[in-house]
């Protein structure tokens, strides 16, 4: 076990965990941030996507010891009031069906729009390519990203 100081959603949080513990489990099990989902555990589905220093990453495959002092943003930290443009577009276009993959989808979309405020269809598809949706709401997801770019 080791102590780690993490900056999560703008707050400093201390955890005492095995250094090899994936960030996903630190967030969910030790800090009760349940918005980040477990999907596959091998960084293939995107359900566990968070921002690490502003970049969308798979939290299931990053050991907490690799974080250092890089800021982490989870879906809970995307916006205090749910008024991030991506969140508003998701609601307006009724994107989610089961909703399980949506936090990861939204985190990937938010990172894309921060880097590229007006992405093409191809750029959206490429950026969200690693986020799987079992319900197949890809068309609405793409429409929501385009809508969020205008908000």
UniProtKB/TrEMBL annotation:
CDD domains: fer2 (cd00207). InterPro entries: 2Fe-2S-bd, 2Fe-2S-bd_dom_sf, 2Fe-2S_ferredoxin-like_sf, 2Fe-2S_ferredoxin-type, 2Fe2S_fd_BS, Beta-grasp_dom_sf, Diverse_Oxidoreductases. This is Isoquinoline 1-oxidoreductase subunit alpha. Keywords: 2Fe-2S, Iron, Iron-sulfur, Metal-binding, Oxidoreductase. It comes from the Bacteria. PANTHER family: BLR6218 PROTEIN, OXIDOREDUCTASE WITH IRON-SULFUR SUBUNIT. Residues 2-78 form the 2Fe-2S ferredoxin-type domain. It comes from Roseivirga thermotolerans.
């Amino acid at each position: 076990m080791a102590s780690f100081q993490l900056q999560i959603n703008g707050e400093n949080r201390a955890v005492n965990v095995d250094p090899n513990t994936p960030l996903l489990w630190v967030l969910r099990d030790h800090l009760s941030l349940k918005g980040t989902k477990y999907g596959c555990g091998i960084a293939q589905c995107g359900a566990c996507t968070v921002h690490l220093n502003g970049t969308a990453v798979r939290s299931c495959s990053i050991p907490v010891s690799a974080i250092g002092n890089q800021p982490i943003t989870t879906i809970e930290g995307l916006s205090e009031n749910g008024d991030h443009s991506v969140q508003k577009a998701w609601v307006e276009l009724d994107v989610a069906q089961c909703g399980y993959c949506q936090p990861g989808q939204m985190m990937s979309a938010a990172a894309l729009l921060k880097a590229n405020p007006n992405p093409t269809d191809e750029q959206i598809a490429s950026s969200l390519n690693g986020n799987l949706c079992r319900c197949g709401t890809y068309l609405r997801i793409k429409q929501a990203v385009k809508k969020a770019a205008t908000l």
